[in-house]
Automatic annotation (TrEMBL):
Listed Pfam families: MatE
Designated name of the protein: Protein DETOXIFICATION
Family classification: Belongs to the multi antimicrobial extrusion (MATE) (TC 2.A.66.1) family.
Stretches assigned to coiled coil: none
Lipid bilayer topology: Multi-pass membrane protein
CDD domains documented for this protein: MATE_eukaryotic (cd13132)
Length: 433
């Protein structure tokens, strides 16, 4: 493939990232705006919502997103190979797996209060967090778009239902997204990619589950990592202030991550498409373009955050104590934004190429063998508090990012294209259909 054609393809990748970023931004806004409004209700409410959103919903998010990400690899590579009819079959298999997984995860929400108490959270935070229920993620993980800020504002400012009102509207917003997406898929606008419901979706489900489990492990280890940051803050002496301040920082980090997640989705699609189409050099060049773009955007956001370091905490909370802790954490937050802008793009390469199992091992070592223990040592025995916990855990993210860089740099993309061809043939064959 010539240089001009590769350049055109990579412009298409950046264009593809735009809608993905917008979608991610809208999705994240559902929980983020609710959390922001909770911060203006009170410190306890902010801490409780942060625990619910990070621990309860975070656990569910990691599992559901991971169990659904296998379809990204298969659909992307099948599309690149021109096998459009298989996209609908893979989607239906993913729905079956996600619905079963969602039914199991439902019990985590039902028993949220005793679960939080068992893992050592304070009773006041646990009771407030346990009162929130957010069940609407289910089918959405494989078909996305949404916007609900006005409804959430009404729940807090007009009905005066407080946390319960925000949680109820958040739940309704997710279901609204799911219904619209199903209408879009069933309307026939997807062409050959949606062949209608078929019994092929039930064929070789166990093989699909195994592939999904590898993806789930990779995604869960990433999603739960920063969930653990909020969880550990709940064990500090002044837990409400620590969790509330950290929730403000993770809220901002989440907003910036919506851009990185958009790049993650775009590079996943591009790499899987190009490998499926046997264009390894274009896949490699796409990775370079996407990682550089993600880094530059993360750098600009970090600089803006440091410039407005004194002003932005007031947007998220009323407590002066919380604002002071947020101010002290801002330089670390800015550094984390840069690192977390690069890491999702590299993870997207892993999903597109089908490296989920390998990256799961990398995540275990970097996050849970290195990052978490270091954070706990700095935070507790060395009395650095929430800042020490974050120092250790961001060190784990840096190590993981460096290893991903090395893996991508050493990749034989011709070999990966050959592996993709074999994967497509296997899942297209009788065992896959």
């Amino acid at each position: 493939m010539g240089l001009c054609q590769r350049s055109r393809r990579n412009r298409e990748t950046l264009v593809l990232a735009g809608p993905a970023i917008f979608t991610s931004l809208c999705q994240y806004s559902l929980g983020a705006f609710t959390q922001t409004f909770a911060g203006h209700v009170g410190t306890l409410e902010l801490a409780a919502f942060s625990i619910e959103n990070s621990v309860i919903a975070g656990l569910s998010l990691g599992v559901m997103l991971g169990m659904g990400s296998a379809v990204e690899t298969l659909c992307g590579q099948a599309f690149g190979a021109g096998q459009h009819d298989m996209l609908g079959v893979y989607l239906q298999r993913s729905w079956i797996i996600l619905l079963a997984t969602g039914l199991l995860l439902m019990f985590l929400y039902i028993f949220a209060l005793p679960f939080l108490l068992v893992i050592g959270q304070t009773e006041s935070i646990s009771r407030a967090a346990g009162a929130e229920q957010d069940h609407g993620h289910g089918l959405d993980f494989r078909c996305r778009i949404g916007l609900a800020r006005t409804l959430q504002l009404a729940a807090y400012a007009e009905t005066r239902l407080g946390m319960a009102g925000g949680a109820a509207v958040l739940d309704a917003s997710w279901w609204f997204i799911v219904i619209l997406q199903l209408i879009y898929i069933f309307s026939g606008t997807c062409g050959k990619a949606w062949p209608g419901f078929t019994s092929k979706a039930f064929a070789n489900l166990w093989g699909f589950v195994r592939l999904s489990l590898a993806s789930a492990v990779m995604m869960c280890l990433e999603t739960w990592y920063f969930m653990a940051l909020v969880l550990f803050a709940g064990y500090l002496k002044d837990a409400e202030v620590a969790v509330a301040a950290l929730s403000v920082c993770t809220n901002i980090l989440g907003w910036t991550n919506t851009i990185a997640i958009g790049f993650n989705a775009a590079i996943s699609v591009r790499v899987s498409n190009e490998l499926g189409a046997s264009h390894p050099r274009t896949a490699k060049f796409s990775v370079v373009v996407m990682v550089i773009s993600a880094f530059l955007i993360g750098l600009v956001v970090s600089i803006l955050l440091l410039v407005f370091q004194d002003q932005y905490p007031s947007l998220f909370c009323e407590s002066d104590a919380v604002k002071q802790v947020v101010y002290e954490l801002t330089p670390l937050l800015a550094f984390s934004i840069v690192v977390n802008s690069i890491q999702p793009a590299l993870s997207g390469v892993a999903i597109g190429a089908g490296w989920q199992a390998l990256i799961a091992y990398v995540n275990i070592v970097c996050y849970y063998v290195f990052g978490v223990p270091l954070g706990l040592i700095l935070g507790y025995p060395l009395n650095m508090g929430v800042k020490g916990i974050w120092y250790g855990m961001v060190a784990g993210t840096v190590l993981q990012t460096l290893i991903l860089f090395w893996i991508v740099y050493r990749t034989d993309w011709n070999k990966e294209a050959s592996i993709a061809a074999k994967r497509i043939k296997y899942w297209r064959g009788s065992r896959g259909c």
